[in-house]
Amino acid sequence: MNELIYFFNYVVVAGSVTGCIYAIGAVGVTLIYSILRFAHFAHADMMTLGTLAVLLLTLAFPHAGDPLGLPTAIVMLPVAMAFTSLVAVGIDRAFYQPLRSHGVKPIVMVIASLGVTLMLQGLIRLFAGTGSQNLYVDARKEIFRIDVPGVTRPIILTEPQIILFVITIVAVVGLHLFLTRARLGKAMRAMSDNPDLARASGINTKLIITLTWVIAGSLATIAGTLLSLDVAFKPDLSFFLLLPIFAAAIVGGVGHPYGAIAGGFLVGFAETLAVFNWSVLLRPLRDSLPTWLELPNNLALVGTEYKIVVPFFILVAVLIWRPTGIFKGKVI
Amino acid sequence: MTAPSTQRPSTSDRRTLPIRELVLFGGLALVVLAVFATMGPAYSTRMLVEASCYAILALGLTIQWGYAGQFNAGIMGFVALGGFSATFFSIPVNHAFWSSDLPGRLGWVLLAMVVVTAIVFAISRLDRIGVPKLLRTILAIVAGLIGYLVVISWLRSVTGDIESQVEFIGGLGLPVWLGWIVGGALAGGVGYFIGHICLGLRSDYLVIATLGIAEIIKAFLKNSDWLTRGTATISPLPWPVPDPGQVGFLTARSLYLSVTVVMIAVIFFLLHRAYHAPWGRMIRAIRDNEVSAAAMGKSINRRRQEIFVFGCILMGIGGAVLTSFNGLFDPQGYLPLNHTFLVLVMVILGGPGNNLGTLFGAVLVYVIWIMSGPMALAVMHAIVALGAHWFDWQPGNLDSRALQARVFVIGLLILLVLRFAPRGLIPEKVAHHH
C-alpha cells in the first residue's frame, strides 16, 4: 500500500498539477490561434509577466490576503490579470495589428511573436533579476497530510495545489459557459469558424480580437501564478513551459479549447509518468521474481534532465499519425 | 511582408552601379576600421573571425527563410551539433578509454540498440503477413518499450562506468576539418528528420519542432558526461592553422580568418550559382506561389526537404568552425539568444534571400552585438545613477541586468525590421522579364 500512496503523491497529484497548468496555458494558445491564426510564441512569457506582476504586488502588500485566509498572491491575482490583459492588448495594438493590416503570412506573425518573447524576457529579467523568488512573502505554505488507515505514508497535498485545482475547474467551467451561452462567446466561436462570414454578419471583429487577448492574458496570469505558488517564481519559467503547452494545444487539435484541456492533461501526465521511477512500484514483487531477472534500481523511462523530450516526442507522434490532433482541430 | 511576398516594386530601374550596396558596405568598412582603431588589431580580428562564422550560419538561414520561406528557430541545436562534431574529431585520443574493456561494452550496447530497432520495425510490419493491425500496434509498442528499457539500463551502466573509470571517451585525434564536414552531415541528418515530419504541414509546426529539437540536442550534450564531459567543458580545441601559442594572436587569428573567408567565398559562389540555376528558380516559385508551382508538376515537399537540409548543413559547418575558433566546447554556452535570434536578426536586417545582404547583416549585427555589451553597461550605470538619485532605486547584480537589456533590444529590433523594413537593407533582387 505504501507504494500506491507513493504513486498517488508523485504521479496522480504531480501529474494533475502539471496537467492543470499546461491545460490553462494551452487554452490561451489555442484561442489566439483560432481567432488570429498564428502560433503565439510569447504566450509562455505572458505567463511569466503576469506572475511577475503578482510577485511585485505581493511584495508591496504582503499581508493583504490575511483577512480572507488566502495567500496574498491569490488576492492579488485579479489585479495582475487586468494588468497582463492590458499589456497583451497593448502589444497587439503596437506590434501585431500593423502587421495584420499589411496582410503578412502567418509565419511572419510567428517571428514577430518571437520578437515579443525576447522583449518580454528582457523586461522581466531587468526587473526581477535572474534568481528564483518565492511567492509566499512573509507567509508559510500549508501542507495537508491525510492519513490513510493501515498505511504509514500519508497522502500529501499542499495549499497551492488545492487552490490550483479549484481555480482550474472554475476557469474551465467559466470559459465553457462563456463560449456557449454568452453573446460575445458565440461571436468568438463564429469568428474562429469563419472570420469573413462573421464580419459580414455584423460581428465586431476588433472587439473580439481585444477580448481574445484579454482572456489569453488572464488565463496566462492564472497559470503562471498558480505554478509559481506551487514551486517558485523564476524568470526563465516560460522556457520550460513553451514546448509542453504547444504540444498540448496540437495534441488536442489546434483551435479547439476542450481539446487543449485534454491535451494539457495528457502531456502533463505523460511527463510525470515518464520520469517516474517504476521500480518503486515493483519493489514489493522483488522477492517473488525469478532469480535471473534482476530488477534495476532506476526504471524511469527518461531522466528528469530529459523531461523536455516527452512533449517533443508526443508532438512528433501526433504530427506523424494525426496532425489534426485528437479532437480534429483546424486547418493544417 | 518579408522576402516571401507578392508585393514587389514593378518598376525595375536598371542601374549599372549598385549604389546602395557600395554605400552600405563602405559604411560597414568604416565601422570595422573604427573598431580596429579603438580596440586594437588582435581583438578586432577575433571579432571578424566570429562574424565570419556567424555569416556562414546566416547564409544557412537565408536559404531556408529567404529562398524557401521556411523558418528555423533551432539554429542553436545545429550549431551545438557541429561544435560537438568538431570537438569529438579533433581532440586527442583518450588511451585509458581505448585500452579498457569499455569500448567493447559500448559497442555491444550500440549493437543492441540497432537490433532492438530492427525487431520493433519488423514487428510494425507484421500486418503484411496477416496479423490484425491493432494487435500489431500493441505488439510493436510493448516490444519497443521493453527493448528501450533494457537498452537504456545497459547504456546507463556502461556510461556510468566510463565516467567513473576514464572520465570520458575522448576524441579521435583526427584533423579538425574532418570534424567540420561531419558536423555539417550530422546537422543535415537531424534536419532531414525534422523536415520529413514537419515540412508537409503548416510552417508554424516547423518553428515549434526546431525549437524543441534544439533544446533536446543541448540537453543531451549537457547531460552526457561520458561523451562530452558535460558541464566540465572541453578545451583547448585544435585549430586547422597554427594556433596563437606558436605564431602569436594576431597572425593566428588572421590565418583563421583567411580560412573562414575562403569558406564563405566558396559557399557564396555555390549559392549564387544555385540561386540563378533552374533549381533556384523552382525554389522561389514554390515560395511565392505553392499552388501554381505544384500545378507545374514540381515536387514541393522534396524541394523543401532539400533546401531545409542544405540550410542545416551550413549551420552545422558554421557552428563547428565557430566552436573550434572559441577553443572551448561548453554545451551550456549555446544560448537561443546568441545562436538563434542573433542570426535571425542578421538575416532579416540584411535582406533575406539576398546573399550579399545577408553577409552585410551578419557583419554589421555582430559588430553591434559585440560592442553593445560595454555600451549597455554604461547606459545601465547612468540609468541607475539617475534612479538612485530620484527614487532611491538600488538594484543588485547590475552587470547581468544590463546584459539582459540587450535581449530587449534584439526583440525590439526584430519587430521594427518586420514592420518598417520587411525586405531588409539590401533586398532580394527580383528579375523582371518584359
TrEMBL record, chain A:
What organism does the UniProt record list as the source? Salinicola lusitanus
Q: Does the keyword section mention tRNA processing?
A: no
One Pfam family matching this protein? BPD_transp_2
The stretch of residues making up the signal peptide is: none
Q: Where in the cell is it found?
A: Cell inner membrane
- Please verify whether the record's keywords include tRNA-binding: no
The name this protein carries in UniProt is Branched-chain amino acid ABC transporter permease
Its keywords, alphabetically, are: Amino-acid transport, Cell inner membrane, Cell membrane, Membrane, Transmembrane, Transmembrane helix, Transport
Q: Which residues cross the membrane?
A: 6-34, 46-64, 70-95, 107-128, 162-179, 207-231, 237-254, 261-280, 300-321
Q: How does the protein's chain sit in the membrane according to the entry?
A: Multi-pass membrane protein
- Check the record and name the CDD domains matching this protein: TM_PBP1_LivH_like (cd06582)
Q: Which family does it belong to?
A: Belongs to the binding-protein-dependent transport system permease family. LivHM subfamily.
Cited InterPro entries: ABC_transp_permease (IPR001851), BCAA_transport_permease (IPR052157)
